[in-house]
Amino acid sequence: MTIAPENNMVDVSFTLNGKLVDVSVSATDRLLDTLRYDLRLAGTKEGCGEGECGACTVLLDGLPVNACLIFTFQVRNREVQTIESIDAHELEEFHSEGATQCGACSPGVVMTALWIRNHPSLLQTHQLSRLMAGNLCRCTGYDAIVKSLEASLSIQERN
Amino acid sequence: MQVLLPQTLDEACTMLAESQGRAVPIAGGTDLIVHWPCNIEAHQKAYLDISTLDELKFITLSGDSLIVGAMTTFWETITSKQVESEFPLLVQSAKEIGSVQIQTRGTWAGNIANASPAADGVLALMAYDASVTLISTHGTREIPLHEYFLDYKCSQRQPDELIHSFCIPRRSFTFDYFEKVGSRQAQTITKVGVAITNSSSGWRVVANSVAPMVRRCYQVEQLLEKKARIQQPDDLLAALDQDVSPIDDIRSTAAYRRCVLSRLIYYALREHCPWYS
Ligand SMILES: Cc1cc2nc3c(=O)[nH]c(=O)nc-3n(C[C@H](O)[C@H](O)[C@H](O)COP(=O)(O)OP(=O)(O)OC[C@H]3O[C@@H](n4cnc5c(N)ncnc54)[C@H](O)[C@@H]3O)c2cc1C
Ligand code: FES
Ligand code: FES
């Protein structure tokens, strides 16, 4: 199938936060552009646009990816989960440990952190700080972020 | 921008041939989409999306080799117990490539096709004597990875060919080592890196970021085969100077790279090779 030869538009269907969505977007649009400007989900941020900072982290079929490095047409028929799908109560430890200041990195940090929390076996093969290395923060400091995640993991373990 | 969405590998090869090799294959996009909004020139091209072709996503361990499909991601390799137990350098190098977010999208084929002198995946593959299988409407051909690169960002792959897979012969290894030096511990581009193996087929010493492309260090390999006495890192420099040609660039200097490479190799082998000193 060839698409977008002339008017540059592509039709893409995918599951977003549990609901099927159909969008008609420019072939050149990245998932980040579609989320923010077509679907008006501005929680996902753009920092660097080059895969370094992780502010644009979303889950694609359950794995963290940078939405600035994927074309929207590449997520056809796949499942995308953004920060908007997260319940506020899941962020309790994030608040109590002071893991956010300006908030620019936070949506991305939270997506990676909750992925780790939901897959604690990752910590048998990876260091927490390594798993979080793709999420840069310019103001809070990484200790608070890592502490909040450790707190969240230990609460989960007790329950 | 034109987008080509093949459903099968056959269709992908046909589409690429019909575009006369002008369509750009896109896999994980972690090289291609960097700084996309500013890269206006790239918006004019045609892209062939092969990222979802299941036919190119596999890890197969057969009697005598490991074969990995081009679209296998680094993350899929990191989480493969089979690969980890027999080819640990593949997992070590994959874990050193960018961050988790890069590893979940980035593919081996992208790392090879990009032909960067700093490619970390290529480093490990070459130390295992990997070969690359290319496919087009004309059929397939296999090229040993150490002969695949021709120059900086330049390889034997023709524009109408896709990387199909890579293949590594199964051997019993008595030594393996991978080290990457960058400006920080994680998510960093390599200033100098090295991978070393020893098996019944002999020593392989491979270095990256010290030449226009990832390089086998044949002279150093020969020193090791001959069990030459090496009493200090500087004893490796004469051989290394024939093998690599580091330069000064934004990430490091030639002198630093040369010095660090000799020390990485020396200290990696010192414990392992009694004849060293
Ligand atoms: C933040 C960041 C950090 C990074 N860190 C590292 C690092 O530490 N080490 C490292 O080695 N790399 C690193 N990279 C580079 C990149 O992630 C890797 O090179 C990766 O392997 C590219 O794979 P991809 O699938 O994303 O390739 P793409 O971007 O999709 O493609 C890259 C090139 O390969 C071609 N291509 C892809 N598949 C095929 C195929 N099957 N046949 C023919 N051509 C093909 C494309 O046309 C393109 O030219 C980093 C990138 C970013 C953005
Ligand atoms: S905006 Fe995507 S990683 Fe920085
Ligand atoms: S809270 Fe400001 S960048 Fe992290």
Total number of helical segments of chain A?
5
CATH superfamily of the largest domain in chain A: Beta-grasp domain
* Structure ligands: flavin-adenine dinucleotide, FE2/S2 (inorganic) cluster
User: What is the H/E order of chain B?
Assistant: EHEEEEHHHHHHEEHEEEEEEEHHH
The CATH first-level class of the largest domain in chain A comes to Alpha Beta
Mean pLDDT of chain A: 93
Chain pair forming the biggest interface: A-B, 37 and 35 residues
Spans of at least 5 consecutive residues with low confidence of chain A: none
Give a structural overview:
The complex is a heterodimer of chains A (159) and B (277). With 159 residues, chain A is an alpha+beta fold. Chain A has 2 domains: 2-82, Beta-grasp domain (Ubiquitin-like (UB roll), Roll); 86-158, DNA polymerase, domain 1 (Orthogonal Bundle). Chain A is built from 5 helices and 6 strands; from the N terminus they run βββαβββαααα. In chain A, strands 3-2-6-4-5 form a 5-stranded mixed sheet, with helices on both faces. In chain A, a hairpin with a 2-residue loop joins strand 4 (57-60) and strand 5 (63-66). In chain A, helix 3 (106-118) packs parallel to helix 5 (142-158). The termini of chain A are far apart. With 277 residues, chain B is of the alpha+beta class. Chain B has a domain at 175-269: 2-Layer Sandwich (Enolase-like, domain 1). Chain B contains 11 helices and 14 strands. Chain B has helices at residues 9-18, 74-78, 81-86, 88-95, 100-103, 108-114, 120-127, 145-148, 218-225, 237-243, 254-270; strands spanning 2-4, 24-26, 46-49, 59-61, 65-69, 131-136, 139-144, 149-151, 154-155, 162-169, 173-181, 192-199, 202-208, 215-216. In chain B, strands 4-5-10-6-7 form a 5-stranded antiparallel sheet. In chain B, helix 9 crosses helix 10. Chain B is globular, with a radius of gyration of 19 Å. The model of chain B has no long low-confidence stretch (mean pLDDT 95). The A-B interface holds A 1-5, 8, 10, 27-28, 30, 49-52, 54, 57, 60, 63-66, 68-71, 73-74, 76, 112, 125-126, 129-131, 133-135 and B 1-7, 15, 26, 28-30, 33-37, 43, 47, 49, 51-52, 75, 78, 95, 98-102, 104-105, 185-187. Strand 1 of chain A pairs antiparallel with strand 1 (2-4) of chain B. Bound molecules: flavin-adenine dinucleotide and FE2/S2 (inorganic) cluster (2 copies). Flavin-adenine dinucleotide sits between chains B (24-32, 34, 50, 70, 96-98, 102, 105-107, 109-111, 113-114, 119-121, 162-163, 187, 189) and A (50-52). The site of one FE2/S2 (inorganic) cluster (FES) has 12 residues of chain A, from loops.
